[in-house]
Amino acid sequence: MASTSTPVTFDEKDHRDDQMHDTIDQWLTDLTELVDEAAASEEFQAWLDVQSRFHDYSYRNTLLIKRQCPDATRVAGFRTWQSEFDRHVSEGESAIWIWAPIITKRCPSCENSVSYHEESDCDYDDTDPEDWDNGLVGFRPAPVFDVSQTEGEPLPELDTAATGDASTLVRHLLDAADDLDIDARIVPEECWPRNDAKGFCKPQPNKGLPRVEVLATDSDAEIAGVLIHEYAHALLHIAVDDTTERSKREVEAEAVAYVVGRHFGLDTSNSAFYLAAWQGEDTEALEKRLGRISRTASKVIDAVEGSTPIRTAAQRL
Q: Rg of the chain over CA atoms, in angstroms?
């Protein structure tokens, strides 16, 4: 796999949009080629590390952050640092470029902005453009800066009760099950029906909710990791009945467990990702998998953090 250790920059305004697209496409192409399994797995894990810190960002934006500033922890726009956190960007710092949504009035039919609608073949004219609802019409490059590039007042401390405490995380994961529409339970060893597994997920046609069961062990961290892994299966794979997908979906579930676990301070040093299961897939298939991983991890994280009473401004960066 081609080396991506050297950070990239998008300083040329006239070519920035194309360069951002090309950087993402090249990373995906390199990963699908899997020239070196170990290097590809390491590169994939490096992206997961960034995704764990920016769980509410799309995989495309976390890839861009990874390629420009892989050690970034919290990013915000120039004005946001000033107005919300009383910090300012240090002189000489280069922006990190990500995709920002363009929200404006759009045609109810073709969903284009007013200007694009006028140039399109769409003939919708039932309502005046001034009365159209706002909606997403595209994305534009937008500059942000990492906290390490700023100076000023200290950021508020994170106050997520689950962070760094596996026993507390297990409790919050179980509390979050209802929000995730999952029937989850920890099963004592003497009642465990599956000797060869530490957790499993199965559909329950009569009840409608997928059932997740995890073996009770002496390690809260292990219980939390297995819970997250099985939650990923419940959210992603409960309706998948394709044996050829089994090993491929295991990588997705393990990736979700890694992102969520790392976000909440679990030790993820023993994680391993066997990307050979994805060998032969094209970049479009890989993009879909990365999208599923990032969205599912974000959903679990939001459910867990929603079960705690306080969300600080730093968590919303």
A: 22
**Cα 20–chain centre separation:** 19
Q: How far apart are CA 69 and CA 282, in angstroms?
A: 27
Q: State the amino acid at position 284 in one-letter form.
A: E
Separation between Cα atoms, residue 165 and residue 170, nearest integer Å: 9
**Residue 267 banded pLDDT, cuts 50, 70, 90:** confident
Name the residue type at position 77.
Answer: G
Q: Look over the chain and give the mean of its residue pLDDT values, rounded to a whole number.
A: 87
Distance from C-alpha of 230 to C-alpha of 214, rounded to nearest angstrom: 8
Strand order in the sheet with 199-202: 183-187, 211-215, 199-202
With contact defined as beta carbons under 8 Å apart, do 50 and 83 qualify? no
Q: Where are the domains of the chain?
A: 76-152, 166-316
Cα–Cα distance measured from residue 61 to residue 26, given in angstroms and rounded to the nearest whole number: 14
Q: pLDDT (tens digit, 9 = 90+) per residue, 268-292? A: 888 878 888 888 888 999 999 999 9
Interval 138-167: pLDDT, tens: 889 999 999 999 999 998 865 444 445 788
Single-letter residue type at 11: D
